[in-house]
């Protein structure tokens, strides 16, 4: 059994018996029901970020299980957290796919674990037009391609090998399917 160190959030959806169970195990509970302007995920990522203020966060990676596949407004809020904390690598994971942010400030090399992910993938610009996106390693590579909502977005693409490269003029969401075991 896994015992979390902390349960943090606005406590509007946790069942009393679940909260009591973990409290009795010694899990710390931080009730932030006074803050309705931020999501539970945002509260938790900020907590992790601030946990060790002097720690180099460049290698920090936060995996968020169950972040997709529920209510769309919650999914959009979780995606918003990727943008809010763009300097931290945060991976949103569901049974079907994973999503993370590719900041425009980097040339990205994505190493594919073909035994568990792929082949379907996508690159999605949210919030602003990507004037120029270039990729390698996809079935339908992009070459200085403009993408934006209401026009072209790269969905239902396919990975072709073990490494994908992406360079873009704007932040993009990378999404790739997860293989069923």
TrEMBL record:
Keywords: ATP-binding, Kinase, Nucleotide-binding, Transferase. It is found in: Cytoplasm, Cytosol. It is an enzyme of class 2 (transferase). Its EC number is 2.7.6.2. Transmembrane segments: none annotated. One of its GO terms (biological process) is thiamine diphosphate biosynthetic process. One of its GO terms (molecular function) is ATP binding. Residues 106-173 form the Thiamin pyrophosphokinase thiamin-binding domain. GO terms for cellular component: cytosol. Its main location: cytoplasm. CDD domains: TPK. Catalyzes the phosphorylation of thiamine to thiamine pyrophosphate (TPP). TPP is an active cofactor for enzymes involved in glycolysis and energy production. Plant leaves require high levels of TPP for photosynthesis and carbohydrate metabolism. This is thiamine diphosphokinase. It comes from Salix viminalis (Common osier). The lineage of its organism: Eukaryota, Viridiplantae, Streptophyta, Embryophyta, Tracheophyta.
């Amino acid at each position: 059994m896994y015992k979390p160190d902390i349960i943090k959030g606005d406590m509007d959806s946790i069942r009393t018996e679940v909260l009591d169970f973990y409290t009795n195990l010694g899990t710390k509970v931080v009730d932030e029901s006074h803050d309705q302007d931020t999501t539970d995920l945002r509260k938790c990522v900020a907590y992790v970020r601030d946990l060790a203020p002097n720690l180099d966060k460049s290698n920090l990676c936060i995996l968020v299980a169950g972040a997709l596949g529920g209510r769309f407004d919650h999914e959009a809020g979780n995606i918003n957290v990727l943008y809010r904390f763009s300097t931290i690598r945060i991976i949103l994971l569901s049974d079907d796919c994973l999503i993370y942010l590719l900041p425009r400030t980097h040339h990205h090399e994505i190493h594919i674990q073909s035994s568990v992910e792929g082949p379907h993938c996508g690159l999605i610009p949210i919030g602003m037009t990507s004037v120029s996106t270039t990729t390698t390693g996809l079935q339908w590579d992009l070459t200085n391609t403009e993408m934006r909502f209401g026009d072209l977005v790269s969905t239902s693409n396919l990975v072709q090998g073990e490494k994908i490269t992406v360079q873009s003029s704007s932040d993009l969401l990378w999404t790739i399917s997860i293989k069923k075991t």
